[in-house]
Amino acid sequence: MTDTTTGQEAECTELLQALIRNACVNDGTPESGGEARSADLLADYLEGSGLDLQKFEAAPGRTSLVGRIEGSDPTAPTLLLMGHTDVVPANPAHWTQDPFGGELIDGEVWGRGAIDMLNITSSMAVAFKRLARGNFKPRGTLIYLAVADEEANGVFGASHLIEHERDAVIADYVITESGGIPLPSPTGLKLPVLVGEKGLFGMRLHIGGTAGHGSQPYKTDNALVTAAEVVRRIAEFQPETHIHDVWRGFIESMGYPEEITGPLLSVDGLDDILEHLPVGMARQFHACTHTTFAPTMMQAGTKLNVIPDSVELDVDIRTLPGHDREDVMAELRLALGDLADAVTFEQLNYDPSSSSPIDTPLWDSLSRVSQRWYPGSETVPFLTVGATDARFFRRSDRVAYGFGLFSEKITFEGFGAMFHGDDERIDTESLGLSTQLWEAVAADLLTGRD
């Protein structure tokens, strides 16, 4: 490890710890988040570097920070480095360490957001500051965005900025969370680039019944009992397998032997081979190839001794590329069977799947510069099964990828398990690698030099 790398790690580690301790917890309500705390922190950190900084507040406390290094050539490509500052809630009782303590233990920073995605937000800020201090003179403009409200559909963050402050954030190329996890394969190390993501389809099911006294349940029309059967059917439903282009590109790039590649690219064989994979990988691969339906919230009843006459059940549905509302509703009705007619459907949100092509200068740049740290590695396309702010830029016909650069201490399976999970943490070596990557990509893409 060089002195420069050590300095980058240390600077990024301290900034990440501070962001974690700000506890910008987004529970989905407009008054949560408090991202202004981290926007102020990052502005203070970046101030004095000669950067053009702006804050945008979509609602009280819901602040995003934008920094710019203007390019010399208006016709040159522009690059946006985007990280969000909000995090999901955490239950301290389930953590080994304080989820908002930001402790550095055995070379790892612990805390909510360490993986999702304050590690990227902080490393992008450190790289941005280092470029500014190094008198970086790109042909194309470089933008840094620390955005609010990613964890609740971007209403007060990326969506707001694209709609109301477009000129401040729009760029030809966008990098956000979270690929780049070194993935061993029979043909060498692969670095997944998130070129697309599944769509969001939130559905509320209203299930009716007849009120009655809780002391006389015999043959009552209990809405909660009906709802339990609805939940069971959704949980046991086996959605159709779909082999889409991004999945095919990923598997064909991995160099697996034919006895693995064949079933993973087979509509009939994929579900069988999932049974023989590690559970974390199987869960990820299943979600990449199926529309998924997850019952997540239920509200029922008014009093202990009253048979409930209504239930609200929320289902988190994630859609595949090319699938629209009609496709999803057909599968949901198939899952419910004869109970479909007993349910009233209320759409909570709908955000289709999105993707970017891989034959782009940004793809080439990521592939090229990654070789410095992982010689002989190969960037491969991948689909994230969650939602990111990249989708807002893809809708504006911009190329947006999820990437980073992580150490081999982090496994593909372990990385995925820590998203919104307990004991979230990141090693400092990964922080240094990502920081160096952003500097290298900016130089490669925006100036054509190292």
Automatic annotation (TrEMBL):
Keyword Cell inner membrane assigned: no
Signal peptide limits: none
This protein's record includes keyword Zinc: yes
UniProt keyword terms in alphabetical order: Hydrolase, Metal-binding, Zinc
A GO term, aspect molecular function: hydrolase activity
Known cofactor(s): Zn(2+)
Peptidase M20 dimerisation domain: residues covered: 195-340
Pfam families the record matches: M20_dimer, Peptidase_M20
Family named by the database record: Belongs to the peptidase M20A family.
Protein's recorded name: Unannotated protein
